[in-house]
Amino acid sequence: MTHALIVIDMQNDFCPGGALAVAGGDEIVPEINARMAQAGAVILTQDWHPAGHSSFASQHAGRAPLEMIDMPYGPQVLWPDHCVQGTQGAAFHPDLDTDRADLIIRKGFRRAIDSYSAFFENDQTTPTGLEGYLRSRGLTQLDFVGLATDFCVAWSAMDAAKLGFEVRVLNNLCRGIDLDGSMARTQDAMRAAGVTLE
């Protein structure tokens, strides 16, 4: 089979009660689990930050979460501390069927650079290795689900399309943050990149 389901960052810190909660983030878990049975492969991504990561507002004196700053690799949203390696917040949602995963890609583990996309760090050049894995398995049709629509899902989907994969984002199985209109902007950007939104 050439079809893969890529489940983005279904972690405790992005679900209600977490450090960077996405409204309704936990609601999509049962249907994501059901979709896994239909996929030729299942890939999970996991935000995996070291303590003191440079994208954390706590590391920038006088700065607050959700402010923007310029980093050497470009603009960066400053986030609350979240998904710190080895913490309960970084763990997958307890109801997610992680046993179905063929591969888990951890991202954001380099202290000096953030990583929204499952394919590249935010410098848009440092690869995660996911592209090679998919190509070596002949997986060319990718469905993206998870959190958050307007950040990690969108960046992953757009990178996949640029790399030549056939890409769908299943909007009913995603939830977004919508930071200053980011949902509308990223929906338009995904369509422009050749991503199918369903």
Describe the protein in words.
The protein is α/β, with parallel strands linked by helices. 20% of the residues lie in helices and 23% in strands. The chain has 4 helices and 8 strands; from the N terminus they run βαββββαβαβαβ. It has helices spanning 29-36, 130-136, 149-162, 182-192; strands spanning 3-8, 41-47, 68-71, 74-77, 103-107, 141-147, 166-175, 196-197. A 6-stranded parallel beta sheet has the order 5-2-1-6-7-8. A two-stranded antiparallel ribbon has the order 3-4. A hairpin with a 2-residue loop joins strand 3 (68-71) and strand 4 (74-77). Helix 3 packs parallel to helix 4. The protein is globular. The mean pLDDT is 97.
Key features?
single chain; 198 residues; six-stranded parallel beta sheet; two-stranded antiparallel sheet; 4 helices; globular
Write the layout of secondary structure elements.
Blueprint: E1 3-8, H1 29-36, E2 41-47, E3 68-71, E4 74-77, E5 103-107, H2 130-136, E6 141-147, H3 149-162, E7 166-175, H4 182-192, E8 196-197
Parallel strand pairs: 1-2, 1-6, 2-5, 6-7, 7-8
Antiparallel strand pairs: 3-4
Helix pairs in contact: 3-4
Mean pLDDT across residues: 97
Oligomer: single chain
The gross shape turns out to be globular
Fraction in beta strands: 15-25%
Strand order of the largest sheet: 5-2-1-6-7-8
Total helices: the number is 4
Could you give a short account of the major beta sheet?
A: 6 strands, parallel
* Termini separation: 21 Å
**Uncertain spans:** none
- State Rg: 16 Å
Kindly state the number of beta strands. Answer: 8
Helix content: 10-25%
Query: SSE order, as H and E?
Result: EHEEEEHEHEHE
Task: Kindly name the structural category.
Answer: alpha/beta
